[in-house]
Amino acid sequence: MTYLGFLALFVVPPLAVAALLWRGVLRHGGWRPIAVLLGIVYATATPWDSAAVARGYWGFDPRRILGVHAFGLPVEELCFFGLQTLLTSIWVRQRLRSAP
Q1: Domain boundaries, the chain
Q2: HSE-CB for 82 with a 13 A CA cutoff
């Protein structure tokens, strides 16, 4: 399975469902803390992951990625950071909103 296929199968559908079910959490500025969190995630995870790949701690099979890189990482990896953060953030915002 390609990395893009993994994202399309296991990350995008739950994110789409969560966004549809809990679209209210993004209204009235609810997206602002998520945007800040996305900034933090990218600012911290990208250099750390890039350094680990550059040092050979792990890598990505060229047959399973698109071959487009940014900051030394496949674009799929960068998408994973954002999609996972969005999915988790929407779920947490909903849980906090419905807490007693």
Answers
A1: 3-98
A2: 7
